[in-house]
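name: query_chain
kind: protein
chains: 1
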Amino acid sequence: MKPIVSVCIPTYNGAKYLAACLESILAQTFSDLEIIIVDDCSSDDTVRVANTFARRDRRIRIVVNDINLGLVGNWNYAAELARGTWIKFVFQDDLILPDCVARMHAVAMDTAIPIISCARDFTFEDGTPDGLRADYLDHRARIQAVFRDSAQWSARDFCEAALQSLVIWNILGEPTAVLLHRDVFRRFGWFNPHLRMLCDFELWARVASNTGTVHIPQSLAIFRVHETSTSGFFRASEARRYRFNMVDPLLILHEYAFHPLFANLRAMAAHRHSRVDLESEFWRRALLVHWFARHAARDSVPRDVSLLDEWQVAARDCPRLASIPLKIKFLAKLRALEKTVTSWVKGWARP
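structure:
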């Protein structure tokens, strides 16, 4: 018989924390589930740890990839393998509280909404940089703030939240804090392989801008933060920070502006009181992100071409970036000239 919930654990060199992760899943009060561990060619003891637990509980299924699929590829493969009606990702570093699956599934049944999120706490490992710790605590506070007035959002509510400032951030949180109906992958597609860090939020937005979402304000998951985590990895160099802070948000804005499944978001942007032109905003930011990479390669000391390499990878995945229209470039230069002239006139007219 098919389980109600599939708990998917994509793993890669996660032996250090996997046992604690699995213990938290096996302790769930909701028992009608399968646990799928999909290992992406780990070189440590991840598979050995997984096999130890599989001998204890027949609900655990282990798949070892023949080739390394990468982070997003492994997430998608794990979801493909799931047999449950609902899919609950839990990352190898993370923990979920004993009633996490039960609470999230109950809310899903009550609301008939296919994407549910919950609040999460953090475990900060020794050596976690203060800046990274502050970023996560700030992120948790922002999530609490946006759901303060209402925990259940319509598709329109989600679109409004996404358009508030067009600062791309993960409104719902990481996959460990989200429950999905398996049908969302058929209706809205898979995690976007062209994104490195914000691939989870882009899918959440693709779904919730069409279906709405529900947030559980109680913490039902624990996200582990350490220097070797994926988030730590992407903050460890200038090129990775550029990718995380500038390129990925630009690629998501591209989806907002052009992807058919974001039609609701575009309609909302065009008709809200403070109208947002998503296509123009995309081109404006594309010029800025490209300029930043060219500046690092040409004018920084020492020169850094790694950002330009990241830009070129993005342009290969998103062909529009490879040929920014001359009209867009001209208008940007014209706006810059207008600002310069305005500033000069104000200075000249000042007594």
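note: Residues 239-349 form one domain.
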